[in-house]
Design brief:
254 residues, alpha/beta, six-stranded parallel sheet, 12 strands, 29% helix, elongated
């Protein structure tokens, strides 16, 4: 007997797992937050939009008869991850997180590791710099507090409203970005500092590798602690955990 599975997605990992489950005995729904204007086509049925917090997610899990919840959201989507953990606890419906491993410092990396985006503003310092801002659009306005720098902001969707900064440019692009492309971008725009999140995975690692080669400092925003769900890091590990939940004789919600 297959499971009715809700995947909280929007990541490469979520799409890969959904693809691995498509056409199997399991009934899968992939949920997207709806923050991207033109999301990629997905291999399973999708829903778009929030749930109304942990209580709303728990209500959805119950009323729609889900047997398993998988949090495959972005490593920095802490609110929905917290909600997933709370909803699983409230309903007794099994849940786990699917996370790409974080990047690890390599010889030659010039990293300043910080805990949150506001600390990145201070870490840039007082002297003017040419900054590649690669943190997405939602928190870009924080850097209006440091108008002495020149910024190149890269995001999937436009930053709206545009930043109130005297020297700012925008690039709309979706990864993956390879190291050679990133090297050329950094040289072309004379970037001397990168602000990024430790998202992990390979799709956006190119800028980290290029910065290492060019000896460009990176201000790296580290992840918050996990919400407490069991965590897997590969599709194969996820499929094993799903099979465990689906094992004959296992009571739902245990």
């Amino acid at each position: 007997m297959g499971l009715h599975i809700l995947i909280l997605g929007g990541t490469t990992e979520a799409r890969a797992l959904a693809g691995a489950l498509a056409g199997t005995r399991h009934d899968v729904v992939l949920s997207l937050a709806g923050r991207t204007r033109a999301p990629m086509a997905q291999p399973v049925p999708t829903r778009i939009g929030g749930f109304g917090g942990a209580d709303g997610l728990a209500r959805t899990l119950r009323t729609e008869g889900f047997d398993l919840l998988i949090d495959a959201t972005h490593p920095f989507a802490t609110r929905i991850s917290d909600n997933a953990a709370k909803a699983s606890l409230e309903t007794g419906i099994p849940a786990f997180a699917f996370r790409r491993p974080s990047w690890q410092r390599q010889p030659g990396d010039l990293w300043t590791c910080i805990d949150h985006v506001h600390a990145a503003v201070a870490a840039l310092g007082a002297s003017p710099r040419r900054v590649l801002l690669a943190i997405g659009r939602q928190e870009a306005a924080v850097f209006e507090a440091a108008p002495q720098h020149a910024y190149l902001v890269r995001s999937v969707d436009p930053v709206e409203p545009p930043l109130a900064l005297p020297d700012v440019g925008y690039i709309l692009a979706t990864g993956p970005f390879d190291a050679a492309e990133e090297h050329a971008l950094l040289v072309e725009h004379r970037i001397d500092c990168i602000v990024a999140k430790n998202s992990g995975g390979s799709a956006t690692y190119g800028k980290i590798a290029a910065a290492r080669a060019l000896q460009i400092p990176v201000i790296l925003i580290e992840r918050a602690a996990e919400a407490g769900l069991p965590t897997v890091t590969t599709v194969e590990e996820a499929l094993v955990r799903i099979d465990h939940v689906a094992a004959p004789g296992r009571k739902r919600g245990v």
